[in-house]
Amino acid sequence: MATILDIGLFESFNTIFPVLLVFALVFAILQKTNMLGKDKNTLNAFIAILVAFLVLLSKTVINVVNYMTPWFVIVLIFTILLLLLYQTL
Predict the structure, then answer these.
(1) Distance CA 49, CA 67 (A)
(2) Is the pTM of this model over 0.85?
(3) How far apart are CA 56 and CA 63, in angstroms?
(4) How high is the pLDDT of residue 12?
């Protein structure tokens, strides 16, 4: 019996999630820093798409992002819990 949490389902998204993550990070950095000037949303999006496609071409980068993402999430959750503990004391 197949379930939604079947590993085979997640393997098909193995390359999509890192590409979306890189696109979102690059676009957010370009928007926040105003590196290309103000009101350059289309140019920022175009550059973010190009970088995401470059990531898509490299299997090594995709494997590195897939390996590092869970660790960053664990560190982020741990940091938030430590800040909450600090706030209560």
Answers:
(1) 22
(2) no
(3) 11
(4) 72
